[in-house]
Amino acid sequence: MAKALLEVKRLSIDAHPGHRLVDDVSFEVGRGEFLGLVGQSGSGKSMTGLAIPGLLPAPCHTVSGSIVFDGMDLAGMAEAQLRRLRGRRIGMVFQNPMSTLSPTLRIGTQIVDAILAHERIDKPLAWQKSRDALGRVGIPAPDERMAAYPHQLSGGMRQRVAIAIAMINDPDLVIADEPTTALDVTIQAQILHQVQKLAAERDAAFIWISHDLSVVAGLVDRIAVMHDGSIIEQGSTDQVLDAPRHPFTRRLIASIPSMVANIDELRASDPDDITYTQGITGDAQG
Amino acid sequence: MSSAGDHAASLSLTGVSKAFQRQQPLSERIVERIAGKAQRHDLWAVRDVSLTVEKHEVVALVGESGCGKSTVGRLACGILKPSAGTIEIRMSGPERRSRKELEVQMIFQNPLDSLNPSHRVRDIIGEPALAHGLIDRRGVAAYVAGLMSEVGLDPSLATRRPHELSGGQCQRVGIARALAVKPSVLVCDEPTSALDVSVQAQIMRLFRRLRADQGTTYLFISHDLALVRLFSDRVAVMYLGRIVEVAKTSDIFSRPSHPYSVALLAAAPRLDQRRQRFTPLEGEVPSPLAPPSGCPFHTRCKHVMPRCRGEVPRLRQVAPDHWAACHLNFELE
Questions:
Q1: Could you give the C-alpha distances from A201 to A126, A189, A198, B215, in angstroms and in order?
Q2: Is B21 in contact with B42 (CB distance < 8 Å)?
Q3: pLDDT exceeds 80 at position B2
Q4: What is the sign, positive or negative, of the torsion defined by CA atoms of A109, A112, A116, A121?
Q5: I need a surface site. Which of A36, A101, A270, B20 has the fewest CB within 10 A?
Q6: Closest residue, chain A, to B273 (C-alpha)
Q7: DSSP for B281-302?
Q8: Does the pLDDT of residue B113 top 60, yes or no?
């Protein structure tokens, strides 16, 4: 990796003055690389993901640090410029596809819009491109699906549409925030399979945000673990999972049911709930 | 709170089916009436399910969304009435009350949605016991405090409303509410899937402790196979409204018999599989409005034979305590 495609340096995000959500976070992703950003809810992983394309919900804002994407600093970029990058060079996939898709527009219209927002091509050509994109994410009978409304598709199909839209303009960077969390395991495996295929076909960088280490394990090259707004550990997937250095990473691994032999070994890492359980029932906690 | 100790119950479902009627648009109804082929549009969410949960046993019901596992849970609790078949609650001790339905209580997936947002915790937990005459009004505060400690909640939270609690705390309230009428069977419908993984460990430990202290019988509904492996004695795998395999937990994981169970286990992500080539099961679960003929899984099964398209396989014993509904096991007949 000569020069990283995306370099996040010392990024901090505040909700209100003095209320820090993300604190001094640095990481980079190169072309063709999968980075897993993991942590439990409230750890700041989603906020970090949203900050990159400048989508932080008010009043959250970047207070310091830089987000250098292909030589441009996104942190200080004007909204109009950012809008030209989003959806074209940076694609995004969120957990709930219904929050990405408009319920009142046909699938085809929505994908075509995503193309025409960034490119001046004929509508029939855009329609053709959209249809092919649906085929590539594994949607059967793409012609019929183009005319369907989101509510007529299953959850897995909707998420495929969202992925097709995120990838339609051949982005250099894809940020996926818990994209398979709401799906069944066999559908999740199908989507991960499609994403791997798409990633292999092009040289895009992926940031995969998830609370689920076991999903990330099979997919990513490197892992950054977030806790309380900071990255507490990052390294190659094997390093982080086989030889975790930070105690929190170890606990996160031990909270995965497939990694332990019985419920006693299953660790809890939510500090609030731990105090209650300890105080009242004296449960052993890790 | 160990008075339930000697009162164990088993839960037995025999040939249970549940159909829901689809609301048909008026235009469709008129067209069909004119064409003279008015028919019922039934959606069979559960088809011919027979399952017994012995006393003190934990039986897990696994499968993907839409397979009917939650419907089975609701039928077991009496929230829904079966269209066919019987559900029986058998007590091992003497009958201790006239309303046997109270023996089976349910814990729901989304704790916040299943709690009345305008009620305080003490009302949510205290009301069922009060309504069923287990306590009188003066005893409510102490009863609620006892239950809250039981599930690991600080009793000082009794005056809070659900939105003032964390997800894990809300689920504990939901569990305390279920325990309030002293049930011997708990039906847990995805009790930890709306919670953070880290909170999951605490709730699971609470279930395990209740089981050890009170001998609670569980029907544990989950899509998380790894969690099921840790908690259950037996596992029933459901697909499209039918049970396709039932076996002891260790057998399901080491020697799954039904092709769907095999695929389901293979699809579950594991921490020790790195840079994995995901090789998914093709296709999606068929619509229960138009289920395939024969074996419900034949549209996605890679071992499909002509017989699978015509004949529904019955659950048959393939090994001791191991039942599967697949023609492959009896190919030579």
A1: 21, 18, 5, 55
A2: yes
A3: no
A4: negative
A5: B20
A6: A218
A7: PPS-PPPTTSPPSSSTTTTT-T
A8: yes
d(CA B154, CA A162): 43
Residue type for B123, please? Answer: D
* Better-scored residue on pLDDT, B113 or B142: B142
Pairwise CA distance, residues B70 & B67, whole Å: 8
Residue B321 has pLDDT above 90, yes or no: yes
- Residue B317 CA to residue A78 CA, distance in Å, equals 68
Mean pLDDT (chain B) is 88
ω into residue B296 within 30 of 0, thus cis? no
Helical pair B167-179 and B197-214, crossing angle rounded to 10 deg: 20
Query: Three-state SS for B149?
Result: helix
Better-scored residue on pLDDT, B283 or B10: B10
Please give the pLDDT value at position A197.
85
CA angle, corner A24, sides to A20 and A26, nearest 5? 140
pLDDT at B226: 86
Residues (pLDDT < 50) of chain A are 1, 270-286
Quote the minimal CA–CA distance from A87 to chain B in Å.
27
| Mean pLDDT in residue range B302-318 | 92
Query: Distance between CA A171 and CA A177 in Å, rounded?
Result: 16
> What percent of chain B stands above pLDDT 70?
94
Is A269 in CB contact (< 8 Å) with chain B?
yes
Amino acid at B298: H
Picking from B69, B50, B47, the residue whose alpha carbon sits closest to that of residue B224 is B69
Interface contact A218-B274, CB threshold 8 A: yes
**B188-219 per-position pLDDT tens digit:** 999 988 777 777 888 898 999 999 988 899 99
Contact in structure between B13 and B59 (CB atoms under 8 Å): no
Distance CA B255, CA B259 (A): 11
Contacts (Cβ under 8 Å, ≥6 apart) of B115: B124, B162, B170, B173, B174, B177
Nearest CA in chain A to B274: A218
Task: Decide if pLDDT at B286 tops 90.
Answer: no
Q: In the prediction, which pLDDT does A284 show?
A: 32
Please give the pLDDT value at position B120: 96
Instruction: Provide the chain A residues 3-22 that lie in CB contact (below 8 A) with chain B.
Output: none
The pLDDT-based confidence of B3 (bands split at 50, 70, 90) is very low
CA–CA separation, B224 vs B235, rounded Å? Answer: 12
Closest CA to B237 of B67, B62, B23: B62
CA distance B264 to B258: 10
Q: How many CB atoms lie within 10 A of CB B208?
A: 19
Distance CA A166, CA B20 (A): 38
Give contacts of B 232-261 with A, CB under 8 A. Answer: none
Residue B8 has what pLDDT?
A: 80
Instruction: Tell me the nearest-neighbour CA distance from B95 into chain A, angstroms.
Output: 31
